[in-house]
Amino acid sequence: MSWLTRSFGANRRLAKALTAWNAGDWTGALDIWAPLAQRGNARAQSNMGAAFLHGRGVEREPDKAVQWLTLAARQGDAGGQHNLALCYAEGWGVAQNHAEAARWYEKAAGQGDVEATARLGDLHHEALGLPR
User: Scanning 48, 49, 52, 100, which has the fewest C-beta atoms within 10 Å of its C-beta?
Assistant: First the structure.
């Protein structure tokens, strides 16, 4: 099976899971995302992290959220980078670290994430974790 065929299949499953998620079927979405995330799909890892971060379809477990979000963020997933930055900014599942939050917000902002850009601006405005 070619990588293109595998990629298309994964994207179809991601879309199906997102439809379930948006309909409030969090468990159905997680049932699709979990195996994709285990196989290294960054978008699925990011979505698993968000689920654990907000307690949707699973118990709220910030530590697990950070594990999934770190995997996604390191692969360049903007959503994973943004949510990982939020964890560092708020101290959810990790020690609060504004410098690390700024680093991940900057990566997400560099990919066009407008909210990450705004949050990075807030950190600069407050001089949190950034050189003066």
Answer: 100
Instruction: Write down the pLDDT at residue 126.
Output: 81
Give the 3-state secondary structure of residue 101. Answer: helix
The arithmetic mean of pLDDT across residues 7-28, rounded, is 88
| Phi, psi (deg, nearest 5) at residue 72 | -65, -45
Neighbours of 3 (CB within 10 A): 7
The tokens describing 13, both together, are 């499953």
Query: Collapsing DSSP states into helix, strand and coil, what is residue 123?
Result: helix
The answer to whether 45 touches 66, Cβ cutoff 8 Å, is no
Total count of residues recorded for the chain: 132
Is the distance from CB of 66 to CB of 94 less than 8 angstroms? Answer: yes
Task: Please state the CATH superfamily assignment of the domain spanning residues 3-126 in this structure.
Answer: Tetratricopeptide repeat domain (1.25.40.10)
Q: Distance between CA 11 and CA 8 in Å, rounded? A: 5
Give the residue extent of every domain in the chain: 3-126
Q: Quick one: pLDDT at residue 4?
A: 44
Note the pTM of the prediction, 2 decimals.
Answer: 0.87
